[in-house]
Amino acid sequence: MASEELRTDIVTLTSHIIAQQQKSPNHTRGDLSLLLNSIGSACKWISNVVRKAELLKVIGATAVTNVQAETVQKLDVLSNEIFINLIKGTGRAAILVSEENEEAIFINAERGHYVVVFDPLDGSSNIDCGVSIGTIFGIYHVVNETEKPSLKDVLRPGTEMIASGYCMYGSSTMLVLTSEGNPVDGFTLDPNTGEFLLTHSQIKIGKKKIYSINEGNSYAFDGAVKAYLQSVKFPEPVNGKVPAYTARYVGSMVADIHRTLLYGGIFLYPTGKLRILYECFPMSQLMENAGGKSSTGRKRMLDVVPDKLHARSPIFLGNTEEIEKIEDLYKKLD
Ligand code: AHG
Ligand code: MN
Ligand code: MN
Ligand code: MN
């Protein structure tokens, strides 16, 4: 290949994180950069296990039921161990909260001033059939560096989250990241070099009208959600044109949110299955930083204060216009 066809303007996840650190007022610390880099490494390792799962026979269920009363899959366990070990290795985390651990993990690290909340493997029901799955994470700084870390460092509103993101193990492995005051950027794993490369700079939510919901739960939907679904299936003409909606539902939050970010639309999980700390908050911060909105239906999702580690909430995320339709319906029907 002629040299002019090779790209040399390479931005790796690491160089991007360092560039953002240098712009930030706390740039002397570099602790957050170290943590984000270790999350990048964890996602590469998980991606590697996911890609080989069928061949290595790590697909299938364990005999364990987790705190969520779900049957734990072997990949849930492996991903959790990889994530925990790589974060611990940085010495910068004080507390870890995982979907797969009932209790918070307190780490006795001298310089650990961060809380990392995560869903190591999202979309467990899609593992055995090879459909896209992911990892979700969020980071808080401890409330006070001089105090002993405690649950009050964790049970805080999403507005206090300083960084969040997800990695999707799909047709390619993509890491999507945002942090306080920064845009949402996407990196694609280059299997040849093993590097995450910046491929989607400053993602803004798309404009397509796609709605995404598990309608098998319809019996449990309230009036506002039923009215919203009616309005997208039988839309009223706007300026003489009927807006056509498309339905898409993968069943892995990471994949459904990734599509919603890139193409546009709305993701609804109204029955309160999704966990606030490590599913709802990170995805809400990403959605807001990409120009969209996230709501419980009755208030901004990021303003919620979880009362326990694995607390759950109804959630609606997507284009501002669609989320406001839902919020208006709740106001009208409550
Ligand atoms: P997890 O696999 O981490 O337990 O999360 C599953 C979640 C989420 O990925 C998805 O949005 C939702 O469960 C799908 O649930 P249903 O299959 O019940 O619709
Ligand atoms: Mn689970
Ligand atoms: Mn999940
Ligand atoms: Mn999970």
How would you explain this protein's 3D organization?
Pathway: Carbohydrate biosynthesis. It catalyses: beta-D-fructose 1,6-bisphosphate + H2O = beta-D-fructose 6-phosphate + phosphate. This is Fructose-1,6-bisphosphatase. Its EC number is 3.1.3.11. By secondary structure, the protein is of the alpha+beta class. Helix content is 31%, strand content 23%. Strand 8 (173-179) and strand 9 (185-190) form a beta hairpin. The longest helix has 26 residues, at 31-56. The protein is globular. The chain starts with 12 loop residues before the first helix and ends with a helix. Bound molecules: 2,5-anhydro-1,6-di-O-phosphono-D-glucitol and manganese (II) ion (3 copies). Residues 70, 99, 119, 122-125, 214, 251-253, 269, 273 line the site of 2,5-anhydro-1,6-di-O-phosphono-D-glucitol. The site of one manganese (II) ion has 4 residues, from strand 5.
Short structural summary:
Residues 207-330 form the Fructose-1-6-bisphosphatase class 1 C-terminal domain. The protein is α+β, with helices and mostly antiparallel strands and 334 residues long. Helices cover 31% and strands 23% of the residues.
SSE layout and pairing:
Elements: H1 13-23, H2 31-56, E1 61-65, E2 71-73, H3 74-88, E3 93-98, E4 105-106, E5 114-122, E6 133-141, E7 163-169, E8 173-179, E9 185-190, E10 195-200, E11 210-212, H4 223-233, E12 246-247, H5 253-263, E13 266-269, H6 276-289, E14 293-295, E15 315-318, H7 320-333
Parallel strand pairs: 3-5, 11-12, 11-13
Antiparallel strand pairs: 1-2, 3-4, 5-6, 6-7, 7-8, 8-9, 9-10, 13-15, 14-15
Helix pairs in contact: 1-2, 2-3, 4-7
The site of one manganese (II) ion has 4 residues, from loops.
